DNA sequence: ACTTCGATGCTCT
DNA sequence: GAGCATCGAAGTA
């Protein structure tokens, strides 16, 4: 039986955690007891003290609300009116998190399609806000709850993904810190978000950059 | 399959 | 009032 990840597990480097969460199962139990789940296939790390995406401009102040959330608790970042699901990392008072960017639907697909009707099944959960809608999550209800909550929790991967199975790329949609290789995806999985670059582009990324996971 | 472009709602100025 | 860690629709292939 897979283990439910506990909040204490997230008092750690978000870059490492983002990588380790690939292959985990995100489980949502609806108010009527329906179980929806999906395999985590794409994540992204944010780590303020060393992250230009956080310290640049408006982001710095914006993190203050997030900083009051203890590690291993859910939080939502809003972008363009869309809620993005994250887990707070490191110790409380530090702004660091892992963003869940895409999942591969496992259980409860009909209910997900009910929450978020799409014509192509591929589009159901292949984006950070898409998966929030497909799971029927209400940010107001889920924010600040532990990642081990019955209604929304994470099961550890059966087997951690090897380096060869992980595609490391740059984050998207931000100005500063574009170059940091802090987005992780399961290589070859069709359920990753449309913007994940091909292998060729990743190779170019490697020589132009520094910061590593640690 | 790909592109472009407007709407979204929340946060900070 | 601006800008954004995005999405969806509409257009072209």
Q: How are the elements arranged and paired?
A:
Layout: H1 14-20, E1 25-29, E2 35-47, H2 52-55, H3 58-62, H4 64-67, E3 74-79, E4 82-88, E5 96-105, H5 109-115, H6 128-134, H7 139-142, E6 148-149, E7 152-155, E8 166-169, E9 183-186, H8 199-207
Antiparallel strand pairs: 1-2, 1-7, 2-5, 2-9, 3-4, 4-5, 6-7, 8-9
The chain binds a DNA duplex (13 and 13 nucleotides) through helix 3, strand 3, strand 4 and helix 6.
Compact description:
This protein has 214 residues and is α+β, with helices and mostly antiparallel strands. Helices cover 22% and strands 26% of the residues.
What would you note in describing this structure?
This protein has 214 residues and is an alpha+beta fold. The protein has 8 helices and 9 strands. It has helices at residues 14-20, 52-55, 58-62, 64-67, 109-115, 128-134, 139-142, 199-207, and strands spanning 25-29, 35-47, 74-79, 82-88, 96-105, 148-149, 152-155, 166-169, 183-186. Strands 1, 2, 3, 4, 5, 6, 7, 8 and 9 form a 9-stranded antiparallel sheet that branches. Strand 3 and strand 4 form a beta hairpin. It is globular, with a radius of gyration of 16 Å. The two termini are 30 Å apart. It binds a DNA duplex (13 and 13 nucleotides) through helix 3, strand 3, strand 4 and helix 6.
Query: Care to count the β-strands?
Result: 9
Q: Could you give the order of the helices and strands?
A: HEEHHHEEEHHHEEEEH
Largest sheet: 9 strands, antiparallel
Query: Average pLDDT across residues?
Result: 86
Which residues form runs of ≥5 with pLDDT under 50?
Answer: 200-214
* Helix content percent band: 10-25%
Radius of gyration: 16 Å
Based on secondary structure, the structural category is alpha+beta
How much β-strand is present in the residues?
25-35%
Principal-axes shape call: globular
N-C termini distance: 30 Å
Number of helices: 8
